[in-house]
């Protein structure tokens, strides 16, 4: 028996794969340019964007999962 948290995690991971796959299928040239741009971006900028995205995601999850 899986926990609700683990099921939510797997659903989130599945959504991530769907969105990423759709972006590659819809515009492979744009994704190639985005990856080249990421390679050229300094580590500190990528790290700040990554931390910001993680915090925003946690806040979104907290807002959506808190009891009303």
TrEMBL record:
Provide this UniProt record's keywords sorted from A to Z.
Membrane, Transmembrane, Transmembrane helix
The organism's superkingdom is given as: Bacteria
Ranges that cross the membrane: 6-25, 45-64
InterPro entries xref list: DUF2065 (IPR019201)
- Name of the protein in its database record: DUF2065 family protein
